[in-house]
Specification:
Helix content: 25-40%
Structural class: alpha+beta
Distance between the termini: 32 Å
Number of helices: 11
CATH architecture of the largest domain: Sandwich
CATH superfamily of the largest domain: q2cbj1_9rhob like domain
Radius of gyration: 21 Å
Strand content: 15-25%
Order of helices and strands: HHHHHHHHEEHEEEEHEEHEEEEEEEE
């Protein structure tokens, strides 16, 4: 979107176009085509919601679920989602059906059927290894949740990156040939907020310690060569990252499909390979109990030989990433 497109949106808003108001509000949140101004963006969306715009109300549901410039309140988020569904906002209707775990178009009844405690309760884990610490959760996510997560972010796939060692930021590397997508505010939703809360319960760690959740995608032959998920502190840039954000405590992977061959997660130092069934999850701690890098966690994402592989990836830090 160009600067002229933004000007046209503002012209439409002055003429009373509520849909343009929501569109500009969303773009101001992330700086899409215009300098970011979250406060103005939320103000535009809130005003549109007050005018009973269904998309704006669904956006407020997202803000409530994620605590965007307001206290997090998932009950309020689901109430707002149900209101947007009643106003015929199709994305809200689909999400409410998933949250209620049943179909139908009685949106009030579906809202009443949403069991938030069930959504955030993880299954029991079983230990694979104590050194390093590796746990498996069978049936961590349902098939419907797996499909939902793939569809939410797949349109934003790009070449997966690795940390730069000489400066802040990331870069492409021949060691990593798969693709990834970030669940940023434009693709996140209540469902992902609750799944992150489920992961937090599984680890006993607040979701505020989580990095941006990622969708990982491997075509046949694509892989991530042997690597560690902890952050080395042997360059100034990497040491500064750990000082600012904490070390990468753990990695949590949810296997979103299983209709492929190969593609295991390989831990060669302990002779262990894992290929989860659809919805299973793998947790491994990247550091020892005293937060020292654990080199036995070196692992590789092996290439699928047939079919494609989808994963949800959640990195967890040793301290909160929430400002303030």
């Amino acid at each position: 979107m160009t600067a002229n497109d933004i000007l046209r949106l503002r012209t439409r808003i002055r003429a009373g176009d509520v849909a343009a108001q929501v569109e500009l509000g969303k773009r101001l949140l992330t700086g899409d085509g215009t300098p970011a101004s979250p406060q103005e963006g939320i103000g535009l969306i809130s005003d549109a919601a007050a005018k009973n715009n269904a998309e704006a109300i669904a956006q407020l549901a997202l803000f409530a679920a994620w605590g965007v410039m307001r206290p997090r309140n998932v009950d309020e988020a689901v109430d707002l989602l149900a209101k947007a569904a009643q106003l015929n906002w199709a994305p809200a209707q689909r999400e409410l059906q998933l949250l209620a775990r049943r179909q139908g178009n009685d949106w009030r009844a579906l809202r009443d059927g949403v069991d938030l405690s069930a959504w955030t309760r993880p299954p029991s884990a079983h230990a694979v290894s104590e050194a390093p610490r590796i746990r498996v959760f069978d049936g961590f996510a349902t098939p419907d949740e797996c499909d939902w997560l793939i569809e939410r972010a797949r349109k934003n796939l790009r070449r997966a990156m690795v940390y730069r060692r000489d400066a802040a930021g990331h870069m492409a590397s021949g060691d990593r040939t798969n693709s990834e997508a970030d669940f940023t505010v434009n693709v996140a939703d209540i469902v992902l907020s609750l799944i992150r809360e489920r992961i937090a319960a599984a680890l006993g760690t607040p979701a505020s310690f989580f990095e941006v959740t990622k969708l990982l995608h491997y075509e046949p032959g694509q892989q991530f060569h042997l690597h560690a998920d902890f952050i080395e502190t042997n360059t100034p840039a990497l040491a500064q990252d750990v000082r600012a954000h904490g070390q990468r405590l753990a990695t949590f992977l949810v296997y979103l499909n299983d209709d492929y061959e190969g593609g295991e997660t390989d831990f060669p130092k302990i002779g262990y390979r894992y290929k989860g069934r659809r919805g299973d999850a793998l947790l491994f701690y990247n550091v020892t109990a005293d937060e020292a890098p654990d080199y036995t966690t070196l692992h590789a994402g092996l290439p699928p030989t047939t079919g494609v592989k989808w994963l949800l990836s959640q990195w967890v830090r040793t301290r909160s990433l929430t400002a303030g």
